[in-house]
């Protein structure tokens, strides 16, 4: 074995360096070849002439054999493949050379191969694909995926907001005791409920327990004039109700009497539970002595129940609806605004309702579905194009490595750099 001694000791083969792989950065391939006189100085001009001739020749090809469309030039790989396909069964000249269209493409292939111009083209192709075309297509796909995801997230967010708005609207309607299908008519109908509420309160007042409470209060006051709780100078309970609906002063006096009665019963119940209650009761009339602390407490509960009914938020709403046209208008407008929130969010989500309130079935609006379909079609169309470009670039890289290796027999050539990452990325 022919060995040479290395500096510092040991032995090595004299041609060891020549056996090392050649690593060439993809962006420097053309310069590397030019520095080693493997690519002529005017290769770019010559390449332009060849590509222009190839593009002109491609116009005569059948539609199925046409060159790549768009702005992409007709490259060496296409020229050689076309030459080889046309050469099969093509006519030959007197000296065996190709004739007809095959001869045109054979001439173009030889022009590419003369002085390795095709390697210069390969260098340009690798840079363009690695630095521009493939990243641009991947960025476009990423943007499309993001747009699709944003569209779906926005739809989901707005659908949730629409559902929350629908619940809030139904809760508001339930608090008013309406269904919410025809807000103006249903709110107007609330006016008819106030007399019924007051009528029920008046009936409670005239019922046994409250009637006994009022007599008890009157007896306790030593036969003084009883409070005006049950004053029915307009014809009993029905008369007082009719007046309470329209007479604000009477309503105020009526409520004051109920509050006065409640306050009396509260104080009286506490007094009857005190240690000296029995001694004080001995001097009271028999009607007063017959009411115990528990009895006074029961009367108090009944009075407080009537007060709670006629002073509740519901009673206030019914009273305002009956007596204030302005309040009625604001109530209707507020409910309609809340009711419109659901529709607004569903429009924002690209959703529209199909059917009435009873059939809450929703479908995607046509324009949103069209946008989604457009994005999906774009992604579906670009995916095979990107895959084809990656495959073509990998093939161009392999051919360039083999072509350079042929110029330096015995050497393995690697085109390195970001191109490896771009081609290996899924």
Descriptive notes:
Helix 2 runs antiparallel to helix 4 (101-113), helix 6 (183-189) runs antiparallel to helix 15 and helix 10 (248-272) packs antiparallel against helix 13. Strand 1 and strand 2 (11-12) form a beta hairpin. This protein has 17 helices and six strands. The protein is mainly alpha-helical and 426 residues long. The longest helix is centred in the middle third of the chain and has 60 residues, at 117-176. The chain has helices spanning 29-35, 43-58, 76-87, 101-113, 117-176, 183-189, 193-206, 208-220, 236-246, 248-272, 277-281, 286-289, 293-310, 313-323, 325-348, 366-407, 418-424, and strands at residues 4-5, 11-12, 22-25, 351-354, 361-364, 413-416. Residues 1-11, 231-235 and 356-363 have low confidence and may be disordered.
Quick tags:
CDK5RAP3, 6 strands, disordered N terminus, two-stranded antiparallel sheet, 426 residues, 68% helix, 5% strand, two-stranded parallel ribbon, mainly alpha
């Amino acid at each position: 074995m022919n060995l040479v001694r290395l500096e510092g000791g040991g032995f090595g083969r004299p041609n060891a360096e020549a056996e090392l792989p050649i690593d060439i950065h993809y962006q420097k391939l053309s310069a590397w070849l030019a520095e080693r006189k493997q690519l002529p100085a005017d290769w770019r001009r010559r390449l332009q002439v060849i590509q222009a001739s190839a593009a002109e020749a491609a116009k005569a090809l059948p539609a199925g054999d046409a060159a790549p469309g768009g702005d992409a030039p007709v490259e060496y790989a296409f020229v050689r493949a076309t030459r080889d396909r046309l050469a099969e069964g093509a006519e030959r000249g007197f000296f065996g050379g190709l004739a007809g269209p095959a001869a045109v493409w054979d001439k173009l292939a030889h022009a590419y191969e003369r002085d390795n111009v095709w390697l210069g083209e390969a260098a340009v192709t690798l840079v363009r694909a690695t630095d521009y075309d493939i990243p641009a297509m991947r960025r476009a796909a990423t943007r499309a995926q993001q747009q699709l995801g944003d569209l779906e997230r926005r739809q989901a967010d707005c659908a949730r907001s629409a559902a929350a708005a629908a619940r809030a609207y139904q809760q508001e309607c339930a608090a008013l005791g309406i269904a919410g299908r025809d807000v103006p008519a249903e709110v107007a109908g609330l006016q008819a409920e106030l007399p019924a509420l007051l009528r029920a309160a008046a009936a409670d007042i005239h019922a046994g327990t409250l009637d006994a409470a009022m007599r008890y209060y009157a007896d306790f006051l030593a036969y003084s004039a009883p409070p005006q709780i049950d004053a029915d100078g307009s014809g009993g309970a029905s008369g007082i109700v009719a007046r309470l609906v329209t007479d604000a002063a009477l309503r105020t006096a009526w409520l004051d009497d109920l509050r006065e009665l409640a306050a009396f019963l509260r104080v009286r119940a506490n007094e009857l539970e005190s240690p000296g209650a029995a001694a004080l009761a001995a001097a009271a009339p028999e009607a007063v002595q017959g009411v115990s602390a528990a009895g006074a407490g029961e009367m108090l509960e009944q009075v407080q129940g009537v007060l709670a009914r006629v002073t509740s938020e519901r009673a206030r709403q019914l009273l305002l609806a009956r007596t204030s046209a302005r309040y009625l208008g604001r109530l209707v407008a507020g409910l309609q605004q809340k009711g419109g929130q659901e529709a607004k969010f569903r429009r924002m989500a690209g959703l529209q309702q199909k059917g009435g309130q009873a059939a809450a079935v929703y479908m995607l609006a046509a324009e949103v579905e069209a946008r989604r379909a457009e994005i999906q079609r774009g992604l579906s169309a670009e995916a095979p194009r990107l895959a084809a470009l990656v495959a073509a670039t990998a093939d161009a890289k392999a051919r360039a490595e083999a072509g350079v290796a042929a110029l330096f027999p015995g050497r393995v050539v690697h085109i390195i750099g970001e191109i490896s990452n771009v081609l290996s990325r899924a």
